[in-house]
Amino acid sequence: MIYPWQQTLWHNWQQLLEQRRLHHAILLLAAKGSGRGVLARQLSKTVLCQNSDSEACDVCHSCKLFEAESHPDFHVIKPEQDGKQIGVDAVRQCNRWATETSHLNGQRVILIEQADALGEAGANAILKTLEEPPAGCQFILTAQSLDRLLPTIVSRCNKWRLNPPDEKNVKSWVESQLHQSIFLESVRLNNGAPLATLAFIESGLDIRYGNLVKAFTEFVQPPHIGIYDVAAMCSADGIVTLQLLSYLLVDSLKWQQGATEYLVHQESLAAVEAIATTIPTALLLEQVRNINNLHRQLAKHTGLNIELLVVEWLTGFIGQ
Ligand SMILES: [Zn+2]
Q1: Could you tell me the fold of the domain covering 204-315?
Q2: Ramachandran region of residue 261, left (φ > 0), alpha (ψ -120 to 50) or beta?
Q3: Quick check: 309 pLDDT over 80?
Q4: Which CATH class is domain 4-161?
Q5: pLDDT(320) > 70
Q6: C-alpha 57 to ligand 1 mean position (Å)
Q7: What are phi and psi of 22, to 5 degrees?
Q8: Gene3D superfamilies given for it (predicted)?
Q9: What residues are neighbours of ligand 1 (ion), with CB under 5 Å?
Protein backbone atom coordinates (compact mmCIF):
# COMPACT_ATOMS: atom_id res chain seq x y z
CA MET A 1 0.00 0.00 0.00
CA ILE A 2 1.18 3.48 -0.88
CA TYR A 3 -0.40 6.77 0.21
CA PRO A 4 -1.24 9.37 -2.47
CA TRP A 5 1.51 11.76 -1.38
CA GLN A 6 4.09 8.97 -1.71
CA GLN A 7 3.36 8.15 -5.36
CA THR A 8 6.02 10.34 -6.97
CA LEU A 9 8.82 9.02 -4.80
CA TRP A 10 7.55 5.48 -5.21
CA HIS A 11 7.59 5.74 -9.01
CA ASN A 12 11.18 6.93 -8.88
CA TRP A 13 12.12 3.89 -6.86
CA GLN A 14 10.18 1.59 -9.17
CA GLN A 15 12.13 2.86 -12.16
CA LEU A 16 15.41 2.23 -10.38
CA LEU A 17 14.23 -1.22 -9.36
CA GLU A 18 13.31 -2.06 -12.95
CA GLN A 19 16.73 -0.93 -14.11
CA ARG A 20 18.33 -2.74 -11.15
CA ARG A 21 19.98 0.50 -10.18
CA LEU A 22 18.56 0.96 -6.69
CA HIS A 23 21.36 1.91 -4.30
CA HIS A 24 22.13 -0.74 -1.67
CA ALA A 25 21.49 1.73 1.16
CA ILE A 26 18.40 3.91 0.85
CA LEU A 27 17.86 6.71 3.33
CA LEU A 28 14.25 7.89 3.48
CA LEU A 29 13.75 11.28 5.10
CA ALA A 30 10.13 11.89 6.04
CA ALA A 31 8.18 13.58 8.80
CA LYS A 32 6.49 11.64 11.57
CA GLY A 33 2.93 10.84 10.60
CA SER A 34 3.68 10.79 6.88
CA GLY A 35 3.55 7.00 6.61
CA ARG A 36 7.27 6.52 6.11
CA GLY A 37 7.11 3.08 7.76
CA VAL A 38 4.49 1.99 5.25
CA LEU A 39 6.56 3.25 2.34
CA ALA A 40 9.73 1.60 3.63
CA ARG A 41 7.87 -1.69 4.02
CA GLN A 42 6.43 -1.47 0.53
CA LEU A 43 9.94 -1.08 -0.82
CA SER A 44 11.15 -3.99 1.31
CA LYS A 45 8.33 -6.24 0.16
CA THR A 46 8.98 -5.33 -3.47
CA VAL A 47 12.71 -6.00 -3.21
CA LEU A 48 11.92 -9.40 -1.70
CA CYS A 49 9.10 -10.35 -4.12
CA GLN A 50 9.95 -13.42 -6.18
CA ASN A 51 7.79 -12.55 -9.17
CA SER A 52 8.42 -8.92 -9.93
CA ASP A 53 11.23 -6.40 -9.68
CA SER A 54 9.18 -3.27 -9.24
CA GLU A 55 5.72 -4.16 -7.92
CA ALA A 56 5.12 -6.66 -5.14
CA CYS A 57 2.88 -9.36 -6.62
CA ASP A 58 1.07 -10.23 -3.37
CA VAL A 59 0.78 -13.89 -4.38
CA CYS A 60 4.30 -15.35 -4.19
CA HIS A 61 5.61 -17.15 -1.12
CA SER A 62 7.76 -14.16 -0.22
CA CYS A 63 4.91 -11.63 -0.44
CA LYS A 64 2.70 -13.90 1.67
CA LEU A 65 5.37 -14.31 4.33
CA PHE A 66 5.90 -10.57 4.29
CA GLU A 67 2.22 -9.85 4.83
CA ALA A 68 2.16 -12.39 7.65
CA GLU A 69 5.08 -10.48 9.21
CA SER A 70 7.16 -13.62 9.25
CA HIS A 71 9.55 -13.12 6.35
CA PRO A 72 12.87 -14.67 7.37
CA ASP A 73 14.88 -12.28 5.17
CA PHE A 74 13.28 -9.08 6.41
CA HIS A 75 14.84 -7.58 9.53
CA VAL A 76 13.93 -4.41 11.40
CA ILE A 77 15.70 -2.50 14.12
CA LYS A 78 14.48 0.66 15.82
CA PRO A 79 14.76 2.33 19.23
CA GLU A 80 13.06 0.32 21.95
CA GLN A 81 11.26 3.49 22.96
CA ASP A 82 10.68 6.83 21.27
CA GLY A 83 13.47 9.19 22.18
CA LYS A 84 15.86 6.40 23.16
CA GLN A 85 18.97 5.43 21.20
CA ILE A 86 19.25 2.28 19.11
CA GLY A 87 21.47 -0.04 21.12
CA VAL A 88 24.84 -1.19 19.82
CA ASP A 89 23.77 -4.82 20.27
CA ALA A 90 20.92 -4.31 17.82
CA VAL A 91 23.35 -2.81 15.32
CA ARG A 92 25.72 -5.76 15.70
CA GLN A 93 22.74 -8.02 15.01
CA CYS A 94 22.30 -6.11 11.73
CA ASN A 95 25.85 -6.96 10.79
CA ARG A 96 25.17 -10.63 11.41
CA TRP A 97 21.95 -10.53 9.36
CA ALA A 98 23.85 -8.88 6.53
CA THR A 99 26.27 -11.77 6.26
CA GLU A 100 23.63 -14.51 6.46
CA THR A 101 22.51 -16.16 3.27
CA SER A 102 18.92 -15.68 2.17
CA HIS A 103 16.41 -18.21 3.48
CA LEU A 104 14.35 -17.93 0.31
CA ASN A 105 17.19 -17.83 -2.13
CA GLY A 106 16.61 -14.16 -2.83
CA GLN A 107 17.52 -10.82 -1.30
CA ARG A 108 17.69 -9.77 2.34
CA VAL A 109 16.36 -6.46 3.55
CA ILE A 110 17.47 -4.70 6.71
CA LEU A 111 15.29 -1.78 7.76
CA ILE A 112 16.67 0.66 10.32
CA GLU A 113 13.82 2.83 11.55
CA GLN A 114 14.56 6.19 13.18
CA ALA A 115 18.17 5.98 12.08
CA ASP A 116 18.67 9.38 13.74
CA ALA A 117 18.54 7.41 16.99
CA LEU A 118 21.80 5.64 16.11
CA GLY A 119 24.36 6.85 18.62
CA GLU A 120 27.98 7.29 17.67
CA ALA A 121 28.94 3.79 18.81
CA GLY A 122 26.01 2.24 16.95
CA ALA A 123 26.76 4.22 13.81
CA ASN A 124 30.41 3.21 13.88
CA ALA A 125 29.44 -0.43 14.23
CA ILE A 126 27.39 -0.37 11.02
CA LEU A 127 29.49 1.92 8.80
CA LYS A 128 31.52 -0.76 7.11
CA THR A 129 28.50 -2.92 6.35
CA LEU A 130 26.59 0.07 5.02
CA GLU A 131 29.42 1.01 2.74
CA GLU A 132 29.92 -2.41 1.25
CA PRO A 133 27.06 -4.71 2.16
CA PRO A 134 27.38 -8.36 1.14
CA ALA A 135 25.70 -9.19 -2.18
CA GLY A 136 21.91 -9.35 -2.10
CA CYS A 137 21.61 -7.24 1.03
CA GLN A 138 19.43 -4.13 0.82
CA PHE A 139 19.56 -1.52 3.57
CA ILE A 140 16.70 0.92 4.13
CA LEU A 141 17.07 3.64 6.74
CA THR A 142 14.35 6.07 7.76
CA ALA A 143 14.67 9.32 9.67
CA GLN A 144 12.80 12.53 10.30
CA SER A 145 15.45 14.84 8.86
CA LEU A 146 19.17 15.13 8.28
CA ASP A 147 19.64 17.26 11.41
CA ARG A 148 20.28 14.51 13.90
CA LEU A 149 21.86 11.98 11.55
CA LEU A 150 25.57 11.40 11.77
CA PRO A 151 27.31 12.60 8.59
CA THR A 152 29.21 9.32 8.34
CA ILE A 153 25.88 7.50 7.96
CA VAL A 154 24.42 10.02 5.53
CA SER A 155 27.44 9.91 3.24
CA ARG A 156 27.06 6.15 2.77
CA CYS A 157 23.41 6.31 1.78
CA ASN A 158 21.35 7.38 -1.18
CA LYS A 159 19.05 10.09 0.22
CA TRP A 160 15.38 10.48 -0.64
CA ARG A 161 13.09 13.07 0.86
CA LEU A 162 9.35 12.50 1.04
CA ASN A 163 7.86 15.93 0.46
CA PRO A 164 4.83 16.59 2.62
CA PRO A 165 1.60 17.27 0.75
CA ASP A 166 0.27 20.82 1.08
CA GLU A 167 -2.18 21.34 3.89
CA LYS A 168 -5.24 21.65 1.68
CA ASN A 169 -4.52 18.20 0.27
CA VAL A 170 -3.90 16.83 3.75
CA LYS A 171 -7.21 18.26 4.93
CA SER A 172 -9.17 16.79 2.04
CA TRP A 173 -7.40 13.42 2.33
CA VAL A 174 -8.25 13.15 6.04
CA GLU A 175 -11.81 14.27 5.31
CA SER A 176 -12.14 11.56 2.66
CA GLN A 177 -10.96 8.96 5.19
CA LEU A 178 -13.36 10.11 7.88
CA HIS A 179 -16.30 11.16 5.70
CA GLN A 180 -16.58 14.38 7.66
CA SER A 181 -15.14 17.85 7.41
CA ILE A 182 -12.30 18.75 9.74
CA PHE A 183 -10.70 21.92 11.07
CA LEU A 184 -7.68 23.31 9.27
CA GLU A 185 -6.08 23.81 12.68
CA SER A 186 -6.16 20.04 13.23
CA VAL A 187 -3.79 19.75 10.26
CA ARG A 188 -1.56 22.57 11.48
CA LEU A 189 -1.46 21.28 15.06
CA ASN A 190 0.00 18.09 13.58
CA ASN A 191 2.58 19.89 11.46
CA GLY A 192 0.75 18.99 8.28
CA ALA A 193 1.38 15.26 8.68
CA PRO A 194 -1.61 13.38 7.22
CA LEU A 195 -1.57 10.24 9.38
CA ALA A 196 -0.87 12.21 12.54
CA THR A 197 -3.84 14.44 11.73
CA LEU A 198 -6.03 11.42 11.10
CA ALA A 199 -5.01 9.83 14.41
CA PHE A 200 -5.55 13.15 16.21
CA ILE A 201 -9.17 13.16 15.13
CA GLU A 202 -9.86 9.43 15.30
CA SER A 203 -8.66 9.30 18.88
CA GLY A 204 -10.95 12.20 19.80
CA LEU A 205 -7.98 14.31 20.83
CA ASP A 206 -9.24 17.15 18.64
CA ILE A 207 -12.39 17.40 20.74
CA ARG A 208 -10.57 17.02 24.05
CA TYR A 209 -8.05 19.64 22.96
CA GLY A 210 -10.92 21.98 22.03
CA ASN A 211 -12.27 21.56 25.56
CA LEU A 212 -8.83 22.18 27.00
CA VAL A 213 -8.45 25.40 24.99
CA LYS A 214 -11.78 26.58 26.36
CA ALA A 215 -10.94 25.72 29.97
CA PHE A 216 -7.44 27.18 29.66
CA THR A 217 -8.70 30.43 28.15
CA GLU A 218 -11.17 30.81 31.00
CA PHE A 219 -8.54 30.01 33.58
CA VAL A 220 -6.00 32.62 32.43
CA GLN A 221 -8.55 35.39 32.94
CA PRO A 222 -9.27 36.64 36.45
CA PRO A 223 -10.48 35.27 38.80
CA HIS A 224 -8.47 32.27 37.47
CA ILE A 225 -10.92 29.49 38.07
CA GLY A 226 -10.40 25.84 37.17
CA ILE A 227 -6.65 25.30 37.58
CA TYR A 228 -7.06 21.65 38.60
CA ASP A 229 -9.46 20.93 35.76
CA VAL A 230 -6.97 22.26 33.23
CA ALA A 231 -4.13 20.28 34.80
CA ALA A 232 -6.20 17.09 34.83
CA MET A 233 -7.07 17.56 31.15
CA CYS A 234 -3.39 17.97 30.34
CA SER A 235 -2.33 14.91 32.25
CA ALA A 236 -5.12 12.76 30.77
CA ASP A 237 -3.62 13.02 27.29
CA GLY A 238 0.02 13.27 28.32
CA ILE A 239 2.74 15.57 27.15
CA VAL A 240 1.34 16.05 23.65
CA THR A 241 -1.12 18.55 25.15
CA LEU A 242 1.77 20.66 26.44
CA GLN A 243 3.07 20.93 22.89
CA LEU A 244 -0.38 22.00 21.71
CA LEU A 245 -0.75 24.60 24.47
CA SER A 246 2.66 25.92 23.52
CA TYR A 247 1.35 26.48 19.96
CA LEU A 248 -1.64 28.31 21.45
CA LEU A 249 0.58 30.70 23.39
CA VAL A 250 2.85 31.27 20.40
CA ASP A 251 -0.22 32.10 18.31
CA SER A 252 -1.26 34.59 20.98
CA LEU A 253 2.18 36.20 20.82
CA LYS A 254 1.88 36.44 17.03
CA TRP A 255 -1.55 37.98 17.44
CA GLN A 256 -0.07 40.61 19.76
CA GLN A 257 2.56 41.45 17.14
CA GLY A 258 -0.09 41.66 14.44
CA ALA A 259 1.44 38.67 12.63
CA THR A 260 -1.89 36.98 12.06
CA GLU A 261 -1.33 35.65 8.55
CA TYR A 262 -0.04 32.30 9.69
CA LEU A 263 -1.60 31.16 12.92
CA VAL A 264 -1.86 27.47 13.75
CA HIS A 265 -5.25 28.03 15.34
CA GLN A 266 -7.70 28.96 12.63
CA GLU A 267 -11.00 27.87 14.11
CA SER A 268 -10.07 28.82 17.70
CA LEU A 269 -9.16 32.41 16.88
CA ALA A 270 -11.44 33.72 19.61
CA ALA A 271 -9.35 31.89 22.22
CA VAL A 272 -6.12 33.23 20.72
CA GLU A 273 -7.51 36.75 20.85
CA ALA A 274 -8.78 36.37 24.42
CA ILE A 275 -5.38 35.15 25.61
CA ALA A 276 -3.52 37.80 23.63
CA THR A 277 -5.57 40.61 25.10
CA THR A 278 -5.33 39.29 28.67
CA ILE A 279 -1.71 38.26 29.15
CA PRO A 280 1.21 40.69 28.75
CA THR A 281 3.83 39.77 26.16
CA ALA A 282 6.65 39.28 28.66
CA LEU A 283 4.63 36.77 30.66
CA LEU A 284 3.53 34.94 27.51
CA LEU A 285 7.15 34.62 26.40
CA GLU A 286 8.22 33.34 29.79
CA GLN A 287 5.39 30.82 29.94
CA VAL A 288 6.17 29.52 26.43
CA ARG A 289 9.75 28.93 27.54
CA ASN A 290 8.54 27.26 30.73
CA ILE A 291 6.09 24.93 29.02
CA ASN A 292 8.67 23.92 26.42
CA ASN A 293 11.14 23.13 29.20
CA LEU A 294 8.46 21.20 31.02
CA HIS A 295 7.71 19.24 27.85
CA ARG A 296 11.38 18.32 27.42
CA GLN A 297 11.68 17.36 31.07
CA LEU A 298 8.62 15.11 30.96
CA ALA A 299 9.71 13.51 27.68
CA LYS A 300 13.01 12.58 29.27
CA HIS A 301 11.82 11.40 32.68
CA THR A 302 8.67 9.33 32.43
CA GLY A 303 8.15 8.92 36.17
CA LEU A 304 7.30 12.57 36.87
CA ASN A 305 3.87 13.73 38.00
CA ILE A 306 2.62 15.71 35.02
CA GLU A 307 -0.49 17.03 36.77
CA LEU A 308 1.49 18.52 39.62
CA LEU A 309 4.03 20.14 37.29
CA VAL A 310 1.28 21.60 35.10
CA VAL A 311 -0.41 23.11 38.16
CA GLU A 312 2.91 24.71 39.03
CA TRP A 313 3.21 26.07 35.49
CA LEU A 314 -0.38 27.37 35.48
CA THR A 315 0.25 29.19 38.75
CA GLY A 316 2.57 31.41 36.74
CA PHE A 317 -0.49 33.03 35.13
CA ILE A 318 -2.01 34.07 38.45
CA GLY A 319 -1.34 37.43 40.02
CA GLN A 320 0.32 38.99 36.98
ZN1 LIG B 1 5.55 -11.41 -4.72
Answers
A1: Zinc Finger, Delta Prime; domain 3 (1.20.272)
A2: alpha
A3: yes
A4: alpha beta
A5: no
A6: 4
A7: -65, 130
A8: 1.20.272.10, P-loop containing nucleotide triphosphate hydrolases (3.40.50.300)
A9: 49, 51, 57, 60, 63
